[in-house]
């Protein structure tokens, strides 16, 4: 490989490769503290409910990395080489950086499969990647967010419009945009995460012609500190009390099918909606949508041009 090639470290949260890897994965998330048997059984049960033991979830990320590579090759053949780095599963972020060094990469760009920046999410990926890159003599810069990229907004608008079509046009539909909750303390840090999510939601709502929408949170961690809310389960109760019978979930903070979507929304929130006699539908996730692949590629190219 030419050492003139630019490495692209594609980072994401990570998911186990199989049911057998859940304990190791959960232990890493808990900073080396193994989960109690009860917690492990609960998490394993969630995965079992979603994948039935087959486990296709990891393939989503693999396909996204391959899709970005293909798009970069189409635009600039041979200039960029993608590597994968996961926060809580192998290959870890540090493994991806080490792979670049082994291949002779001297310059690299990092990008996270998450459009919105927070010091507690994207910022933590960047910190780990930069520390390892500095150790290995790789000059590395990062795409921190792309939450208003026109192609990202277009892809989300398309999904909202498509998901609204099957609803009864004679009844109002409440659109609930959502993202992964974070601890409330990010507000004291002037963290941009919440504001960026509101900007994405407003842009998508405007593009899709949606007037009746609100933002809610989901998938909060189980720690003693308070997390951003209300949670979507609480919001569904509120929406039901207002008389709504039709709700569309638009989890714009997520870019692929994984546990927070397939379980927290498709199973848990769906059951809550049924108990209140509400119809709940969800937009399709971005996964390897060409517009999302183009968003990632454009963002990498823009960062590369800025560095040049």
UniProtKB/TrEMBL annotation:
Family annotation (Gene3D superfamilies): 3.40.50.1400
Keyword Cytoplasm appears in the UniProt entry: yes
Predominant subcellular localization, coarse grouping: cytoplasm
Enzyme Commission number(s) from the entry: 4.99.1.9
Domain of life per record: Bacteria
NCBIfam families in the cross-refs: hemH (TIGR00109)
Matching HAMAP family: Ferrochelatase
Function: Involved in coproporphyrin-dependent heme b biosynthesis. Catalyzes the insertion of ferrous iron into coproporphyrin III to form Fe-coproporphyrin III.
Protein name per UniProt: Coproporphyrin III ferrochelatase
Origin species: Paenibacillus solisilvae
